[in-house]
Specification:
Length: 281
């Protein structure tokens, strides 16, 4: 059964205990099955408080993150390991079942050249070791493919899948915003990586309201129908801009819709398309 989720940054620009708990309530009201929680600072995260609100609202959770620059995995594998282990502990503590996103690299960190085999092997080594601990905690790891302007390490679904396939139980985390920049289209990449695809950020070409940009949603859902996709669909739009989020995502213009509008319109489109293409049966 398809599960629908939304990223917390649909509603807020920074996660703290109070704004996080309010976002859990907002997400439950928006009618999603789970909230994706940004674990950008796992050292300041009140897992017990969020777990209580999630349970009270009957909402599931996943966690995601981007590594800090000083823990860019290929350059700083030990620092990355320490950071990821803390994030994994918090993922389990909050009751989430997945830790995904940019867990193999830091956004905005570049070497000026293409990724080397040794760099990707470092990702396999560190995430493979983390995966052993994750399995013991009932948490699955996912690795996201991100466009060339934000990382050099994994830009396409097929390159990312090649790493994911080396780590048992791990899933490929796709994102239609990045795919719109990097892939030949929205159909074949999903077919080529169907064996490991488990999580998709459903994000418009400009990160705003779904259906108002150039992402070909029918092609996306045709592909998902063709592979019998039963993983997760996660609304990722950004409304509440703060300086950190603006810098991380290069959002330099004010958004045209608020969080409630992004959530309502985006989730409605996802549910309608999933039904149209028989993914919900
Ligand atoms: Mn994403």
């Amino acid at each position: 059964m398809i599960e629908f989720g939304a990223h917390a940054f649909v509603w807020i620009g920074a996660w703290d205990t109070e704004s996080g708990n309010q976002t859990i309530r907002d997400a439950a009201r928006a009618g999603v099955n789970f909230l994706e929680i940004p674990l950008l600072n796992p050292y300041h995260f009140d897992a017990a408080s969020h777990r209580r609100v999630l349970q009270a609202e009957g909402l599931g959770a996943t966690c995601s993150l981007g590594l800090p620059a000083q823990a860019h995995l290929p350059a700083h594998p030990r620092e990355a390991t320490v950071f990821l282990q803390k994030a994994l502990e918090q993922t389990a503590a909050v009751g989430a079942d997945s830790l995904c996103g940019c867990i193999g690299y830091s956004l905005g960190t570049f070497t000026g050249v293409a990724p080397t085999a040794a760099e990707r092997q470092a990702v396999v080594d560190v995430l493979g070791s983390l995966n052993e601990k994750a399995r013991g905690l009932g948490v699955r790891l996912g690795l996201e493919a991100v466009n060339r302007y934000e990382t050099y390490l994994y830009n396409t679904l097929s390159d990312t899948a090649a790493t994911v396939r080396q780590i048992p139980g791990m899933f490929l985390h796709a994102d239609t915003y990045h795919m719109n920049i990097e892939e030949d289209g929205m159909y074949q990449p999903f077919l080529d990586t169907a064996d490991v695809l488990g999580y998709i950020h459903m994000s418009e070409s400009h990160r705003g309201l779904l259906g108002t940009g150039t992402v070909d949603w029918d092609q996306v859902f045709q592909a998902l129908a063709a592979i019998g996709y039963r993983g997760r669909l996660v609304l990722e739009s950004f409304a509440a801009i703060n300086p950190d989020l603006a810098a991380a995502t290069c959002l330099w213009r004010p958004p045209r819709h608020n969080g409630a509008q992004l959530a309502q319109g985006g989730i409605a489109l996802l549910r309608q398309k999933a039904q149209q293409y028989s993914l919900t049966t």
